[in-house]
Backbone:
């Protein structure tokens, strides 16, 4: 005898939840074994991406976007600092025609793709280095966080804060390297 459709669907959902729970338990047991926590302390689950995948995804994406913005600021820093220009004034503008860059053209990576690497007003080329630095910084910030979550049995929020330090340090080293490279060439 075949079960009605809604009951078959319900049993499928229950099975999926049971498989997911089992996978989660296995993951905690493995982490407990790795971190030296015995069977006597199973009441202390390790908060990680398995425990709250939505928060993990949101924090990773936020860091990706934040990293891209840091990369955008880095581009300004690398261009203006050696020329001893102000970092905030005048606002971002095309170095060829001097026209201010509209906010929607200034979005990290996407702005360059949308303009196909050319100024909207004078069509002079915009270096491919700008979106590369922005994309790299985005991946750096997101990547460091994902790596820390995989390696450290700490809460997602603590790792979020901790990941900022090596990411910002790496971005600073990148800025220094780019300034030195530009000076040489
Ligand atoms: Zn222009």
Residues:
């Amino acid at each position: 005898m075949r079960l009605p459709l809604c009951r078959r669907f319900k049993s499928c959902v229950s099975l999926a939840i049971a498989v997911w729970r089992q996978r989660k338990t296995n993951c905690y047991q493995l982490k407990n074994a790795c971190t030296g926590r015995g069977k006597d302390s199973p009441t202390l689950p390790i908060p990680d991406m398995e425990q709250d995948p939505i928060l993990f995804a949101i924090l990773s994406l936020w860091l990706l976007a934040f990293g891209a913005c840091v990369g955008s600021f880095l581009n300004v820093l690398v261009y203006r600092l050696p020329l001893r220009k102000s970092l905030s004034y005048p606002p971002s503008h095309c170095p060829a025609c001097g026209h201010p860059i509209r906010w929607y053209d200034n979005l990290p990576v996407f702005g360059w793709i949308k303009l196909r690497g050319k100024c909207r007003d004078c069509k002079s080329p915009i270096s491919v280095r700008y979106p590369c630095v922005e994309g790299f910084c985005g991946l750096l910030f997101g990547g460091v966080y994902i790596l820390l979550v995989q390696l450290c049995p700490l809460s997602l929020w603590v790792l979020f804060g901790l990941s900022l330090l090596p990411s910002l340090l790496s971005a600073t080293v990148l800025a220094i390297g780019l300034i030195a490279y530009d000076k040489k060439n």
Residues 64 and 139 are 6 Å apart (CA to CA). Residues 5-34 form the longest helix (30 residues). The helical segments are 5-34, 53-80, 110-115, 129-151, 156-184. The chain has five helices and no strands.
